Amino acid sequence: AWKQCQNDSTFQRLFMVADLHSLTARVEEKEAYNLPPNLKKMTLDTLAMYMACGIDPEQSPIFVQSHVPQHSQMMWYLSCLCPLHMLKKMIQFKQKELNAHSKDYVSLGLYAYPVLMAADILLYQTDYVPV
């Protein structure tokens, strides 16, 4: 579906490697203050996957989320406006919190994940988000 989208002049296409979202994954305690060691490789692998699926960067720009500071900035603004009780309803967070293995490490990043997703969408005034 992604390749077909790039031939449709109805849409302006942007493909994002969502590396900030990947930071919510559990990190071993000894690495807790560093980026996951394979983040750069995973980012490049995702870029390669987009291109292998036929995405042409000349027609459809591909960018890395963390290289655009407005994503983090927009997330901050939205997080200041988002009521905490709304985030507490997020099913994924509740499941992680209840899971005995992850109970000792449920990050604020995971809790605020939907706020970052909203920032990603609103930043580009997106109407269509194929996943």
How would you characterize the overall build of this protein?
Helix 4 crosses helix 8 (113-123). Strands 1-2 form a two-stranded parallel ribbon. The chain is mostly helical and 131 residues long. Helices cover 47% and strands 5% of the residues. It has helices at 2-5, 19-22, 39-52, 70-81, 84-87, 91-98, 108-111, 113-123, and strands at 15-17, 62-64.
Properties at a glance:
single chain, mainly alpha, 8 helices, 47% helix
User: Could you give the order of strands across the largest sheet?
Assistant: 1-2
How many strand segments? 2
User: Between the first and last Cα atoms, what is the distance in angstroms?
Assistant: 10 Å
Sheet-strand content, in percent, reads under 5%
Largest sheet: 2 strands, parallel
Shape: globular
Radius of gyration, CA atoms, in whole angstroms: 16 Å
Note the quaternary state here: single chain
The helix content is 40-55%
Detail the poorly predicted runs. Answer: none
Overall SS class? mainly alpha
Count of helices?
8
> What is the ordering of alpha helices and beta strands?
HEHHEHHHHH
- Kindly report the average pLDDT value: 82
